């Protein structure tokens, strides 16, 4: 069911510093900061030849990554995102398998303009999983 690795997300305490580090120290192709108010984050995408890295910083009062950054003040890998062909079929299959789909259970539009869903990290070996319809 899951396909390509769409991105690996890293929560960072200082978005500008992290973006600059990827640009100048790691020599990566770094995009501009993008506010995603529906998701409570500001993101910077880094294009790699085979996938993307998503740098995440909290946006607004109720950011879903605030608790994670409190526990990991210097940052850390926050989630991985797999592509699926049919997000509603994937969701129904996962729910039937007993996995917890986060939020309302309805896909939201993600940072690439495509529907996304999140699965509880405790159901996937301690790793928060995002699904994006390719
Ligand atoms: C823009 C979009 C895109 O790409 O298109 C995005 O990615 S938006 C990316 C931001 N959006 C999201 O993350 C949406 C989905 N996330 C959520 O709903 C939330 O972040 C949760 C995953 C439910 C965690 O919420 P919160 O931190 O408030 O809960 P909590 O502190 O009670 O955590 C419950 C347990 O899960 C652990 N936990 C929390 N976040 C975790 C993470 N990212 N990876 C692994 N474990 C994690 C905590 O340490 C705790 O474990 P212990 O009990 O053992 O201490
Ligand atoms: Co993401």
TrEMBL record:
Keywords noted in UniProt: Isomerase, Metal-binding
Chain segments annotated as coiled-coil in the UniProt record: none
VOC domain segment(s): 4-134
Record-linked CDD domains: MMCE
InterPro entries, alphabetized: Glyas_Bleomycin-R_OHBP_Dase (IPR029068), MeMalonyl-CoA_epimerase (IPR017515), MMCE/EMCE_epimerase (IPR051785), VOC_core (IPR037523)
GO molecular function: methylmalonyl-CoA epimerase activity
Matching PROSITE patterns: VOC (PS51819)
Enzyme Commission number(s): 5.1.99.1
Family, per entry: Belongs to the methylmalonyl-CoA epimerase family.
Name this polypeptide is given: Methylmalonyl-CoA epimerase
Species this chain originates from: Rhodobacter calidifons
Gene: mce
